[in-house]
Amino acid sequence: MTALHETAPWTPGEFTERLRAVSAERYHDRHPFNVRMHEGTLTREELRRWIVNRFHYQRHIPVKDALILAKFDDPSLRRGWVRRIQDHDGEKDGDGGIERWLRLGEAAGVERGDLLDASRVLPGVRLAVDGYVNFCRLRPLLDAVAASLTELSAPDLMRTRIDAFERHYPWIDMEGLAYFRTRVEQGGRDGREALGLVLEWARTREEQERAVAALGFKCDVLWTLLDAVDRGPGCG
Ligand SMILES: O=C(O)c1cc(C(=O)O)c2c(n1)C(=O)C(=O)c1cc(C(=O)O)[nH]c1-2
Q: So what does this thing catalyse (predicted)?
């Protein structure tokens, strides 16, 4: 009896609560570096270091989404997911999220070439991003899609970030914030879509727990990335 009860699947409401609890406890909005960013106490050098290193994450998002895309066998699901790649890569040169992040860099005084130069990326950031890409490459579809559910928390973070940048970092050209403005809507839509898929696919308790663990792993990726940025270069 007890064993049966223990392994009974959560209701959709309970499952959603579990997922939201992971983000509430472990999302990178609570990281000390992010807290300082929003308080307005980052130096120019620290903010530029974050922009350079986060670009490494940004440019790998469409790569991990292509790996996820290859796991779908349903055309309509593929059609939905391919839009995420287009959001980042744009329809043509000069479009899309990666281009907007490059403009964010320029608005903060970082040359495009320095953003594109992967040799400037901190080792911890490289490992965190590799970890996320490989997770999506190697794990089942459910786990890979569940890992993207941090995006449920991203729109609120974007709104707070836009506000903090406008208030505390007037030396950044505000045109550069277009990346964050676009992600408020895109992130909300992506998060809702991914949640619908995860609720539909994870029917057993074991699958539900795997989804919760995947989201926890992704929170660790984002947290570790900020740890590395916070610590900064080890030498030089
Ligand atoms: O700046 C952020 O705090 C933040 C967080 C996240 C996230 O929560 O994973 C993403 C993004 N930004 C983002 O810009 C983005 O394109 C994105 C894609 C994904 C994903 O896992 O598919 N997360 C995020």
A: 6-(2-amino-2-carboxyethyl)-7,8-dioxo-1,2,3,4,7,8-hexahydroquinoline-2,4-dicarboxylate + 3 O2 = pyrroloquinoline quinone + 2 H2O2 + 2 H2O + H(+)
Cα separation, 169 vs 188, whole angstroms: 26
**Which domains does the chain show, CATH number per domain?**
13-231 (1.20.910.10)
pTM score: 0.94
CA distances 229 to 56, 180, 233, Å, are 12, 19, 8
Q: Encode pLDDT of 86-96 as tens digits.
A: 999 999 999 99
- Ligand 1, atom 24: closest residue by C-alpha: 151
User: Residues 23, 149, 168, 59: is their CA dihedral positive or negative?
Assistant: positive
Q: Which amino acid is at 148?
A: S
How many C-beta atoms lie closer than 10 Å to residue 208's C-beta? Answer: 23
Measured by CA distance, the residue closest to atom 5 of ligand 1 is: 154
ipTM above 0.95, yes or no: no
7's tokens = 């392994």
Rounded CA-CA distance 4/229 in Å is 45
Are the C-beta atoms of 199 and 1 separated by less than 8 Å? no
SS3 135: helix
